[in-house]
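Late entry, written up from scratch paper. The run itself happened at the end of the previous shift, but nothing got recorded in the book at the time, so transcribing now.
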Amino acid sequence: MDRTAENTKQQFESTFVSPMRSYTLAALDYYERLVSAQMDAARAYSDMTIAQARTWLDVKDADDFKKAMQSQQKTASDFMERVKGDSEKVTSIGQNFMQDSQKMAEEQTQKAADNLKN
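Output as recorded:
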């Protein structure tokens, strides 16, 4: 392979292939983290719902009813805290991905500008 072809190949690799690979890896990491967070949240919400249903199955008298109501209030509070934490987690994952994507785009723009100078 002659020198010009090798330079063209290297320039194509650094200009297109390498940045696309980096972006794809970042996107895959983002989606993996997002799906994992969503699966964890869904599992936690399901566990809370099932536990609360079991509490209601144990109601046999007024005292049990009172305990079940108190449990339901605590579960509702715990649920809201969990939703808040999950929302913050998903927002953070998205922000990190956007920052990483922006940084990659800026680096690629700088590389392209440097290549044009040479």
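The two ends are 22 Å apart (CA to CA).
(Scratch paper discarded after transcription.)
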